[in-house]
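Structure (tokenized):
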């Protein structure tokens, strides 16, 4: 399986609270970590994202979770256009989770986000430039995961 999948899986597994040896006690989370997590989430949600622009992109998403204007066969080493897919999903997650947004917890938007994520994972896109699979993609996927888990 791809490095992206394993990075994503590691992020999920590492966020699960560990049980003690006797499995009757869940270790408490350090309050400072809770504050730090909330500060990171607040920062991510404060991104300047146009609701109208994001909804326009969501409406243009195909049934399979892709967009017709993204060249998913792109193999350029810099400015990899396939990464636009994740940027769009990231923006969708922001307006989906932003408190007070008209689209907060909107079921149809959630379905679009899941469809787009499934398309990404199913196709296992890899850029020939090491930066995207090692840094760029995990950075965006981690942000999406952090915001969605709030």
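Design, position by position:
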């Amino acid at each position: 399986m791809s490095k992206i999948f394993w990075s994503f899986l590691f992020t999920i597994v590492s966020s699960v609270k560990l049980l003690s040896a006797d499995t009757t006690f869940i270790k408490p989370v350090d309050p400072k970590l809770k504050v730090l997590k909330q500060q990171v989430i607040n920062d991510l949600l404060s991104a300047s994202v146009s609701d109208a622009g994001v909804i326009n992109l969501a409406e243009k998403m195909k049934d399979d979770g892709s967009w017709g204007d993204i060249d998913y066969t792109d193999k350029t080493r810099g400015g990899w256009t396939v990464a636009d897919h994740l940027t769009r999903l990231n923006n969708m997650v922001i307006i989906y989770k932003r408190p007070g947004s008209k689209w907060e917890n909107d079921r149809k938007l959630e379905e679009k986000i899941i469809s787009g994520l499934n398309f990404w994972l199913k196709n296992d896109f890899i850029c020939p430039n090491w930066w995207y699979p090692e840094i760029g993609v995990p950075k965006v996927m981690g942000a999406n995961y952090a915001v969605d888990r709030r």
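Reviewer-requested clarification: The chain is about 60% helix and 0% strand. Residues 3-148 form a domain with the Glycosyltransferase fold (CATH 1.50.10.100).
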